[in-house]
Specification:
single chain; 202 residues; mainly alpha; three-stranded parallel beta sheet; 9 helices
Amino acid sequence: LFVGRTELPDGFGRPEVVNGHKYSAYIFSRRALDNLLRHNGKSIIIVCTRHPMKSLISWHNMHRKIASEGAPGHFTTRTPEDRDFYMNCSLQEYYDRYAENNLRYDFFVKRAFKVFPEQQVVVVAQERLARDPVSPVARVVELLGLAPLEASTSEVKPHFGHADRVKETAGVSPDLAAKLDATHASMLSVIEATGHASNVFV
């Protein structure tokens, strides 16, 4: 569904322009990542990670809200049955129906490193970015060859999203919680195995 966004015409863009695009679904498609690298071999990929339990909570809340608002054309509202499900499903039900494959962060981070040279991949944990965006952004600025970023953490107000405030994970089985913990640990192992620690903020 998202690969077309990377099918750019040859010669697209100008050398003096930096084009930044936030789209998480790129990492779900090997073909999309291949296209990005083929069209611009100097692309920098910023992979924002999170503990998959936090993502599960956040996505569940987001899609519940979208379904309740009745957003036309969204997968949560394709049919009345879909809308009813996403408005009322538990975290476990949501995981089983939608989130299982998309929460394999260990697999997707490994894929990014398979496609792009390690020095062009920056990995940032959402939790780290929320409390200290200056360091990773300064590194990206450096990789782009721009003037050094002049800012400090004292100028940044920490961000706490919905999933950071939720303490209870009702509806999540112990087996699923253990599985998500294992995925997170596996992802950290993949990141640790790379040779570019200066590009890693976790």
